[in-house]
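re: that chain from earlier
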Amino acid sequence: MAKIAIDTNLLAYAEGAGDEGRRARAVEVLAALPEQSVVLPVQVLGELYRVLVGKLKQRPQAARANVLRWSDAFAPSDSTWSAMQSAFDLSADHGLSIWDALILSVAAEQRCRLLLSEDLQDGFTWRGTTVVDPFALRPAPLLQDLLAPEAVPARRPRGPTVATKARR
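^ sequence. v structure.
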């Protein structure tokens, strides 16, 4: 099974940042991903905390609890010095922000086939990891296969989305 890394925007939309269409799509994608194949760069968790506190105005304690629930749902992957060095290269050679580059670098280091993100160029491939925009009108075939109803049994979304929506 292909490994998949997820970027901050997918979790932030699932938490209610953005419009209802993006929230619904993020929840759909996250619920369909095979839990054991998901890589969650710790950089994503830090960025999510910042979005929850800054943009969504959650109290720090609530934001911490939500971030920890996501880390329980998907295995966090630490940033290494090697990943940071690769991120410097990505940033210098391709003009990526250092933090987006670090997320892609960690995904590649973990041998992910896909990085789900709307922040990076859809289709950009680096060291075997391809960036796929899960919000694109025509998602990449590999993502479509992963999200096909016959490929994954129906289940409820993981992470804090259900609880978060209930509190609002």
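Strands lie at 4-6, 38-41, 75-77, 114-116, 125-126, 129-132.
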